[in-house]
């Protein structure tokens, strides 16, 4: 019996997609539909694979996508007024992919691979024989006048011989379907990590369509990049395997999440400039084990920030002496420094002739027509046609010549006659600073919004990776960026978004995984994740601030509970609350104690609880803990980071009222918030104790927590003893509560308010994690496990067996105090801070010995 044929376009979902697709503006290529209105074949197949009718699953998928971005903490930092440190926002990703069929990709791949080879040869020539300059194929003024040309590297061949291990090209599709190269990125091309993250999220929403469209995978390209770098890294025979690091500008950079994600995916240490040092023209990584040789750097830092000695002297992001190491060819830097001038739009006008000269063939993927106004003849061609062109800066704004204002790209069609006249005058005043290009009406992809498929201008960033032997490979995918509503310019900084990029293949789908090859038993003994000194320091302080937040929150909770009680606290307890509150930053210095003015003290405490900019307030400690964690996100699980984020968000998130006061305006509200915070802090403690690998980083985090606990507990005990509150029943209970030992004490010594059991529990009990003896033993044990621990660290902490006996601690002196207890508490309090300084000097600082001049 004959069977009816099935067309994917006849599916309910495909018909619904056509019905809900808003038409694109005239003069733009429609990525979804043919000119006749039918879905393109790959979109017919895509929608045909969707379950249900009428695109009913799309809203659910979009909600799942946004939830995944939120849960994974994927962010993109926004700059304000050209400065770093702007607001952090979730990464913007839309639901539908951008699909490129196999035939189109074949042409794109051939074009970008050819261009990558041309750029590599051009760079080699400019820093070498300079034949292209002598032949007039490239204007010397364009090269030498560009701040991206680095004179200190003239005549220097990079280690490994490859200038550009990775190149990125931004492509746009014209109304006739032709792909054009709009720009190229050669210094530190961004987007690889976001492209991978987009793939993981979007493919999870449409697994059937992903398989049905035979979408090529990305992992092999990342493996190829890593192999190229490690294979050509300069290593000596005794060095063993090359050490490769990923250099980031730090957490305030707009794409810092990508840097952390890439480092984790590639298995590389994420480092900042301060983590590296140059000694005798070699680069070293500062770790808790000492200095370790670095053979290759995958950088996400633009050229001029890389070395403050020879490039930008105001850069705090680079590595002093890095250029000396590059000239000595002792380190491979990917990409090689000095390629910044290749990113100038002016270069596009000269590439066709350069390609003919180097390859004997035209560019297979054309560039937008470009005129560098520094050439008089070029400027005369376009001077009267600016209304139909785009004007771009030849040089980056930060490299502008003295007195020259920063230049922004201008679309002539959007300017008035007066603005065009002003622009022309600016160009004629400094023609070399401007480049004019044809305007490209970008194709329109679709986004799912409010039940409709809305058109948005799209540009695709494609990445090309070198093999180090003269060959190139285009990653089958990329980062597609889309403009905001009614925008012509694609920019993530201006509210744009991104799409996953699906490249179809007619052949085999590469199933390669980034999972490494099996390790032999002998290899396992050599496996050790390096802990940089910066990471160790941030882990140490994250531990200290976590413990400090816990202690200050417990003190605030106990204080508010006492002040809200039926009986006002006595003089001794009031003195304790006043001193501890001032020392721990819950109230400003010189605030009247509860005995002097309970209402004033309470209002002052409540007003400061949420002050994250204060000094040691609860919110400040939470913010400091989160800040330390943000510096080492590559070492934290997504759940751990989310806990740090949530603790601050839940406690300090409610905005201050218009009069500047805290919304926690009543003791009842504050106590509820503090109780919730105690649960969040307990979860963070659990994550740090049970969900982190016990390496040197975790050990220093633990040491930081224990040092802070020792300082807090010894300091509290000293204050209670000095004020005689330890002999007061209410003070007795308060001290036990601050030590988080109320349940234990009541279980052991029900109804007893006696000094010996109290001091045994809080000083000598090695089974109580809040007891001084337990803290010191724990610290001594972890210190001994650190790499090459100096004996002076352990000497700072006398072992508990050398302490005075319980009877001596309880014995009263000539007055009413307990001198042995006061002396021990003061000694341990001082030792905690001395130990903190000593750990920092030993493991966080690697300063070279001083050289005395004269």
Give the key terms.
single chain, 854 residues, 8-stranded mixed β-sheet, 29 helices, elongated, disordered C terminus
Fold blueprint:
Layout: H1 12-20, H2 41-48, H3 58-72, E1 75-77, E2 88-90, E3 98-100, H4 102-126, H5 131-134, H6 140-144, E4 166-173, E5 179-185, H7 192-205, H8 207-212, H9 219-232, E6 244-247, H10 256-266, E7 270-271, E8 276-279, E9 282-287, E10 290-293, E11 296-299, H11 322-327, E12 332-334, H12 351-359, E13 370-372, H13 376-382, E14 389-393, E15 410-411, H14 417-429, E16 434-438, E17 444-449, E18 452-466, E19 472-474, E20 479-482, E21 497-503, H15 521-524, H16 533-563, H17 571-583, H18 594-608, H19 618-630, H20 638-652, H21 667-690, H22 696-723, H23 729-738, H24 742-748, H25 755-764, H26 772-784, H27 791-795, H28 806-810, H29 819-843
Parallel strand pairs: 3-21, 6-7, 6-11, 11-12
Antiparallel strand pairs: 1-2, 4-5, 4-18, 8-9, 9-10, 13-16, 14-15, 14-16, 17-18, 18-19, 18-20, 20-21
Helix pairs in contact: 1-2, 4-12, 16-18, 16-19, 16-21, 16-22, 17-18, 17-22, 19-20, 20-21, 22-26, 22-29
């Amino acid at each position: 019996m004959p069977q009816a044929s099935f067309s994917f376009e006849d599916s309910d979902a495909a018909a619904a997609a056509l019905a809900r697709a808003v038409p694109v503006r005239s003069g733009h290529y429609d990525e979804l539909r043919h000119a006749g209105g039918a879905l393109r074949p790959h979109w017919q197949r895509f929608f045909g694979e969707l379950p249900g009718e009428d695109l009913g699953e799309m809203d659910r998928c979009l909600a799942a996508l946004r939830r995944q971005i939120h849960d994974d903490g994927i962010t993109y930092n926004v700059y304000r007024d050209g400065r770093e440190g702007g607001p952090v926002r979730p990464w913007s990703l839309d639901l539908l992919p951008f699909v490129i069929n196999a035939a189109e990709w074949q042409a794109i791949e051939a074009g970008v691979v050819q261009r990558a080879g041309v750029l590599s040869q051009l760079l080699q020539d400019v820093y070498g024989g300079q034949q292209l300059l002598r032949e007039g194929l490239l204007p010397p003024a364009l090269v030498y006048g560009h701040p991206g040309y680095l004179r200190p590297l003239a005549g220097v061949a990079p280690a490994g011989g490859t200038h550009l291990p990775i190149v990125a090209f931004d492509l746009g599709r014209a109304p006739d379907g032709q792909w054009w190269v709009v720009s190229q990125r050669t210094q530190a091309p961004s987007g690889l990590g976001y492209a991978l993250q987009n793939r993981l999220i979007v493919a999870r929403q449409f697994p059937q369509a992903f398989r049905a469209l035979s979408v090529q995978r990305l992992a092999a390209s990342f493996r190829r990049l890593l192999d190229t770098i490690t294979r050509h890294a300069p290593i000596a025979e005794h060095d063993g395997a090359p050490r490769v690091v990923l250099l980031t500008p730090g957490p305030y950079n707009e794409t810092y999440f990508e840097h952390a994600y890439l480092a984790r995916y590639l298995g590389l240490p994420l480092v900042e400039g301060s983590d590296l040092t140059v000694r005798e023209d070699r680069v070293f990584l500062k770790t808790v084990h000492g200095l370790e040789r670095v053979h290759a750097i995958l950088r996400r830092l633009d050229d001029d920030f890389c070395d403050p000695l020879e490039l930008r002297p105001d850069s705090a992001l680079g590595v002093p002496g890095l250029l000396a190491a590059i000239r000595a060819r002792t380190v491979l830097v990917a990409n090689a420094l000095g390629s910044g001038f290749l990113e100038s739009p002016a270069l596009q006008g000269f590439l066709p002739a350069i390609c003919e000269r180097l390859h004997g063939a035209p560019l297979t993927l054309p560039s937008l027509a470009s005129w560098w106004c520094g050439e008089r003849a070029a400027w005369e061609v376009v001077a009267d046609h600016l209304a139909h062109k785009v004007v771009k800066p030849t040089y980056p704004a930060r490299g502008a010549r003295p007195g020259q204002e920063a230049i922004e790209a201008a679309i002539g069609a959007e300017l008035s006659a007066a603005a065009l006249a002003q622009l022309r005058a600016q160009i004629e005043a400094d023609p070399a600073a401007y480049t004019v290009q044809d305007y490209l009406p970008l194709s329109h992809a679709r986004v799912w919004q409010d039940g409709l498929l809305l058109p948005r201008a799209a540009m695709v960033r494609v990445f090309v990776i070198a093999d180090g032997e003269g060959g190139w490979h285009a990653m089958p995918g990329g980062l597609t960026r889309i403009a905001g509503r009614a925008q012509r310019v694609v920019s993530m900084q201006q509210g744009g978004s991104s799409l996953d990029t699906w490249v179809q293949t007619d052949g085999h789908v590469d199933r390669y995984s980034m999972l490494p090859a099996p390790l032999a038993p002998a290899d396992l003994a050599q496996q050790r994740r390096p802990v940089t000194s910066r990471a160790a320091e941030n882990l140490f302080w994250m531990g200290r601030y976590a413990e400090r937040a816990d202690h200050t929150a417990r003190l605030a909770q106990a204080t508010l509970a006492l002040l809200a009680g039926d009986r006002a606290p006595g003089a001794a307890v009031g003195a304790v609350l006043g001193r501890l509150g001032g020392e721990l930053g819950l109230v400003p210095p010189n605030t009247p104690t509860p005995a002097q003015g309970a209402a004033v003290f309470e209002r002052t405490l409540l007003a400061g609880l949420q002050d994250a900019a204060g000094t040691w307030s609860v919110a400040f400690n939470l913010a400091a803990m989160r800040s330390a964690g943000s510096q080492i996100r590559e070492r934290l699980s997504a759940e751990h980071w989310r806990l740090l984020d949530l603790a601050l968000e839940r406690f300090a998130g409610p905005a201050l009222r218009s009069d500047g006061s805290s919304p926690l305006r009543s003791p009842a509200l504050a106590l509820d918030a503090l109780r919730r915070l105690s649960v969040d802090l307990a979860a963070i403690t659990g994550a740090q104790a049970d969900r982190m690998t016990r390496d040197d980083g975790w050990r220093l985090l633990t040491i930081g927590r224990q040092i802070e606990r020792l300082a807090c507990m010894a300091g509290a005990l000293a204050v209670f003893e000095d004020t005689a509150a330890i002999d007061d029943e209410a003070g007795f209970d308060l001290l036990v509560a601050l030590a988080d030992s109320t349940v234990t004490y009541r279980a052991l010594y029900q109804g007893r308010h006696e000094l010996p059991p109290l001091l045994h529990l809080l000083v000598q009990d090695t089974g109580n994690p809040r007891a001084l003896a337990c803290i010191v033993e724990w610290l001594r044990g972890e210190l001994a496990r650190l790499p090459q621990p100096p004996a002076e660290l352990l000497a700072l902490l006398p072992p508990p067996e050398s302490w005075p006996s319980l009877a001596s601690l309880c014995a009263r002196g000539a007055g009413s105090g307990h001198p042995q207890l006061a002396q021990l508490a003061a000694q341990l309090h001082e030792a905690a801070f001395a130990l903190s300084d000593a750990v920092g000097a030993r493991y966080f600082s690697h300063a070279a010995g001083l050289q005395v001049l004269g």
